[in-house]
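User: Sequence in, structure out. Go.
Assistant: Echoing your sequence, followed by the structure tokens.
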Amino acid sequence: MFYAAVHFQPENPQWRHFHALNQYVARVQSFLQSGKPDNDILLYYPIADRYSQPGNTLLQHFDGMEKNFVNTDFEHVAKDMVEKGYSFDFFSDRQLEQFKFQGGNIVTGGNRFKAILLPAIDKIPEASMAALLSMVKAGATLLVHKHLPRDVPGFNKAGERRTQLHQLLSTLKFNKNQSVQTASLGKGLVHMSDELTELTRLAKARQEKPLSDSVYMLRRKNEQGYLYFVNNRTDHKVDEWVGLTNYAETVALFDPASGEKGMAQTRPGRRGGIEVRIQLEPHASVIIQSLRFKKRASRFFTGTCRECNGSGWLMEA
């Protein structure tokens, strides 16, 4: 059989459980395919750096970090932001052509972002650097991890294009302080630092993350408020309060494995927003839906609710 196929038939030990997997995926995607992404940072995908590395690989698949960017600054930056609870999207040079700065945000694909981050890259097309600095002049925030790009990719008119890149970079006059160098350009700012935490702070990026680094949380937004997919990727139980930075009057919980749902136990956040109690078995998941108005909860729940023993939230009977 074709190597990427899934061979499910009665002789497969997973056959009798396949319906449970389908139900889990359907419930998760009923949320994740609705609404829009709600990420704060746009992270440049340095494909030119990878193309410039010598080797004998004939076919490369760029569908993740594995194999292509192992032990690179790009990999470290992306993993560190995920582990610390900063949300981001990758973007390419071609996508950059569609970016606009409007209303204090970088706008693309109908979504708004607070800043763009260059993850210690070596090569960038001069046209891409010009587009980035043009948005900075309009008021955007550009974050640079460790150092600015050093060269252009490819050999076609490389000298001419390299000169153009260096001319663009020479317009940045950095004022140095202890951990961050900052350059003003037009209405915007360029911040450069070895400390990723400092850069995310300057971008005013929201930080939402359970205490364990191995508990993954993804945020989206919809008409009701904000939704979060939380997955416990550890071998131990999780019972903790998770801080959500966005305002909510009440919060609902959905168990995609069982289909159970109910209202969450909440309390005011110590730094604003709201805190939600989550309890997860090893490798379990939960969907959190924040609701701006309590009356909207009726759109999700009908019938009589009962208190689920020891769970910390009300479950629908």
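User: And one key feature?
Assistant: The chain is about 20% helix and 30% strand.
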